[in-house]
Amino acid sequence: QYKKKMLWHNVENVIRQLKPSLFIGPDGLCLSTAIAEPLSIIFEKSFRTSSLPKLWSQATVIPIFKKGDPSLVENYRPISLCCGTCKAIDSIINQSIILHLETNNLLSNKQFGFRKKLSCNLQLLHCKNIWTTQLDQGKAIDAIYIDFCKVFDSVVHDKLLLKLKSYGISGQLHNWIETFLSHRQQMVKIGNKIEVSLRRSKQNYFEHANKPGRWLSYKLKKEKEKRLIHQLIDEKGIPQHEIEKKKDIILNYFQRLYKKEEINEDKIRTYLENTNDKTIGEGDKELLNKDITWSELKSAMENQCNNKSPGPDGIPVELYKATIDLVGPLMLEVFNEVLLAAKMPDSWREALIALIPKEDVDARYINNYRPISLLNADYKLFTSIIANRVKQVLNLYIHEDQNGFLPFRQIKNNLRTVIDVLEYYEAHPEKQFTLMFLDAEKAFDNLHWHFLIQKIYNMNLGTKFENIITTIYNTQQANILINGEQTGPLSIEKGVRQGCPLSPLLFIFALESLLTRIRQNSEIQGVRVKAEEYKLQAFADDMVFFLEDPMEKGHNLIKELEQYGSVAGLKINRNKTKLLTKNLTENQRKELEKTMGIQATKKVKYLGIWLTPHSKSLKENNYDKLLQQIKKDLESWNKLQLSLLGRIATIKMNILPKLLYLFQTIPIKLPKNFFDDINKVTLKFIWQGKKARISIKALQDAKSRGGLALPNWELYYWAANLLWLKDWVNLRNKRTLVLEGHDLQRGWHAFLWDVGKTKQAYFHRHLIRDSLLTNWKKICKKHYLKIPIWLSTMEAMVHPNNLDITKTTKYKDLLDPLGKLRTRQDLQEQGFKIDQWLYIQIHSRYKQDIKEFGIYSKLQHLDKILLGSNKKNISKFYKYLLEVELEQEIVKGNMIMWSRNIGRSITLTEWEKIWNRIIKITKSVAYKENMYKMLYRWHLSPSRLAKMNTNSSPKCWKCKNIEGTYFHMWWTCKEAQKYWQKIRKWLEEITKEQIEYKPEFFLLGISDKHFPKKTKYIIIHILTAARLAFAQCWKSSCLPTDQLVIQKICDCAEMDNLTIALKNKESSAFDNNWNAWYNWSSIIFKKVYYVFQGIWAEGILVQLN
Fold it and tell me: What's the CA dihedral at 351, 356, 358, 359 to 10 degrees?
């Protein structure tokens, strides 16, 4: 079998299976199937004579970082890049060996690695079956997991050859393998791209480790594993694992999905003509069609995110950003030519499609993946500019019940309306009601281009805009990515590409026709409260419809949806579309299911929130479930090697957003023990089950006040409550206030500041109103000692039915600068229409308020946020609440201890300088953490350990004579004094400055002397590196060696250099900051560093005695 001649077409198949770009070895060549036949002759001769070309014995080794500290060489996996020809013959030999071993059953059935039709998953299933069988029989199980050190690199060649011979592999094959294993050479490059890669990895760790961002996200989530598609189920229900079969499944599915459906264009025109859509003004039309300006291009460029996957051309947006002055004018010219001529580059029609699995679904089915288009950066820049214009126009055109992808529209508004509707029907049990949560099947991918384009023409949005949309949605193609490979070209004939900045806006623009028809259809009855009617809420394609009297009117909604689907492509996924009924009997519910063809359920997940007919179960279904998930996540993350700041960052990045989303969308009453539980599990995670070294208040305080910014959960909850209460204060969102206050007998402000005469029992029967008002009263006790001047006495006294809330006057309008009530004549002269009787009422209320509470004469800090813009409100509310909550904590215990140690009072200005300037100088989280640990006296001294353990000696570990208190260990110890005197000497020689020998300077960075900026920069970094070296030898009797300190400083300098380079800053910034250190170290320590293209090459360190 081994002696058979290798046919050239077998070689061709092997070459085709190889990925040329991954196997460029020492010869630098890629293989092509065109040379398969001559290669087969070479391979046959090599096999017959057991001779190999010299290049086949050579390989280039690339170290690939695994995990852990990137500065340690053992944390890298050596990957050998062989010549392509060597790789090809290796594959053929390997196939022969595997065939021999499998045919003769020479491999254990418990070996699952590198064997066809076997995998890690099957091995785990095999183990699970053994374990469950043992457990079922009542037997105990012990499992030992063994990790071998560099096992592939430790194989002894002689023993391997003997093993092969014992398995019957002999003759020519054995001789060839023996020749192949002898005289092998491997070269590890320590320069050029490999060196840059290693140093970039270290720089990434230096700048990004243990802080919120991609580094921490990968550490926690293992995103790469999620992206792999291990198997797909084909149309016959058979699981497929082979890559080619998976490609076929994907390609067949998306070819059907994106294939154009034949639609009568006259039918589209008729549908749109019968839809009473809004029109846009001439100003908006001009905005959509004007030439693109330089400021628009620059703004779009700045708003593009870095580190995003590029499109088919492989050009990242960072390249355009770096060369904007060069390519910007040309790009601007091209963009305007595209607008004018309605022609665009062919590359703009291409895309790579990445498949992202949806949550909580079976990832083996291809329909459960979301196709995200990776588009070229220049196309995304162009469409970003157009999208920014479209947003401004759509914000006026789209009804306020559509909250998706438009400025100042929030997802919480959808859920607020849904909960208010449920509460309304809780108060009206005599009315039958249902909510229909629509699931549109591949909504973005099914939108018909003809419908979109026809609607744009019908609305006369301008020639340039019409032409560019027609050009974009004319011809498109894509390649779909699966596990790093492409399926081949796919023609796209419908749908808007998810990943294009324009797509979501065009989708909601097209969808508005459907929503307008539903609003205007009198046969579809929604929730009617006073003069308002509520029929739907939408967040792009996530739509919920409100149906009163659903038994009679429900089919009309289905009919409207089907009509729109017949012209625009919307398809109802009846398996996932759900009904949530209220005030219906079981029989009526079943009848409704039959009538509408949609399942009614007791619980629905809408926009991430579990909803039930009775809102009282919101806490159990959402908050309690999330708390359990948080506990589970923190327990699993507890095993990761994260620093203190890394653990706090983990909580801020992964726990805070989830809780904050619930706080904003369902601000129901939460008991105090809920927040206690969250604090308990998060603190356990931060301290890893050990005793806390920093108080929770210090952890939660703002970084500008010396804290570590750990979230205060209750204050975030209050901030979210204030976000909802803002509508009650401002009285602006009329539709929300009418529905939420459907049964109010007095105005909202009567409840916000009640003097005890307004009956509130009915007000508290509404779940959300009850929670908001209860929490508002708690907030008022701390933050409002008097009545705020935004309070409207008119709105508070008059029944909501008899008052236009947009014309209410407030105390800030009624009072003069001295806080006195203006006369009626003064108010009338200022334009307020107040009759005599109303003025008497206002005057009476004013006297009562002044007497019982008092009224602020000007706006308070909280007032300014409540009355201000809608930008970053949660952050503003939280920051204010935190400052008030911790205003007594500004002087912390550690600050007092430091003052006692150094023998003088450290002023608050000096502390603020540390918090806001010194700590921010360095980019490294590790360096920042060292500074925080010094401030909070983190390290456990012998004296403190002796109090914790009576068997431990309180004597200093270094001098061994005096009690080792914290300050003694760091400063007063005679050994420590030697160390800091040496560091002082170095600093004076490096900076040519007189350095004061004070503990506050060396340990905290506080100095009365004003240093030049670059001098201060290098001093802070050298002192931090020196403290890190000292802390590394904390429990040792020896001081840090000069080599250790120098290495710490050198690492800092090198990483600082790379960080500056990667931030697109001039290299001179590095030279200015570190030139003094470079000059001094090269002379004193004879340690040579060469700076060449941002890379430091290190010579031999020889320390002088």
Answer: -150
